[in-house]
Amino acid sequence: EADIYQTPRYLVIGTGKKITLECSQTMGHDKMYWYQQDPGMELHLIHYSYGVNSTEKGDLSSESTVSRIRTEHFPLTLESARPSHTSQYLCASSDYGGRAADTQYFGPGTRLTVL
Amino acid sequence: TQLLEQSPQFLSIQEGENLTVYCNSSSVFSSLQWYRQEPGEGPVLLVTVVTGGEVKKLKRLTFQFGDARKDSSLHITAAQPGDTGLYLCAGVSWEAGGTSYGKLTFGQGTILTVHP
Question: CA-to-CA distance for A48 and A54, rounded, in angstroms?
Answer without folding.
Answer: 8
